[in-house]
């Protein structure tokens, strides 16, 4: 059961983002972090410090490549 549903972003124990959902980001060089905003009304916000952002950036293309290989 969804805890929150609005503009293509559903927050449960995971987040599903519909195709075409707006995604934007802001960086904060002072504390070496980035904030990712999902949905036209910032329905889901993910704040990551630099190392976790790097880790996400490393794993995302690997997951995408595996999906492409699968079909």
UniProtKB/TrEMBL annotation:
Protein name in UniProt: Uncharacterized protein
């Amino acid at each position: 059961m969804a805890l929150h549903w609005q503009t293509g972003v559903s927050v449960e124990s995971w987040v599903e983002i519909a195709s075409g959902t707006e995604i934007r980001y802001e960086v904060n060089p002072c504390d070496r972090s980035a904030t990712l905003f999902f949905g036209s009304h910032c329905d889901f916000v993910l704040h990551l410090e630099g190392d976790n952002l790097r880790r996400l950036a490393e794993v995302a293309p690997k997951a995408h490549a595996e999906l492409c290989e699968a079909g």
